[in-house]
Amino acid sequence: MEGFSSPPFFFIFIAVISLHSFLLLVRAKLVVPGSFGDIGGALYGPWMRHLILNSIVLSQIGFVRAYMIFVSENLQAFASSVTNCVQYVPVKYFILIQTLIFLPFSLLRDIVQRHWWQTLTS
């Protein structure tokens, strides 16, 4: 029975720590205006600002990679069903196609100001 009782307590403990951390972050945000990097820079100096910004970049890269793999596997399944499983296209080629499409957009400084892109997505 112990195996069923300890995981919920562990998750509750992690939830309490997350809630406490979030409330501390909100309090710091009320005192220090700016981004998360600015808050870290004001509280601990430039090394913390860089650490926070780098961790945000790494987490975003992880999200993008997971999204690209998910979309590539769906495109592979779609291509297989359209060709009646005659043509097999590896996932890596769908990832490469997405990379070639997304890379130029990642170089844009402010994508919101691109009106043609907004029209295309509407």
TrEMBL record:
Entry superkingdom: Eukaryota
Protein name stated in the entry: Transmembrane amino acid transporter protein-domain-containing protein
InterPro entries in alphabetical order: AA_transpt_TM (IPR013057)
Family statement: Belongs to the amino acid/polyamine transporter 2 family.
Domain Amino acid transporter transmembrane, first and last residues per copy: 9-117
Ranges annotated as spanning the membrane: 6-26, 51-70, 90-108
Pfam families from the UniProt entry: Aa_trans (PF01490)
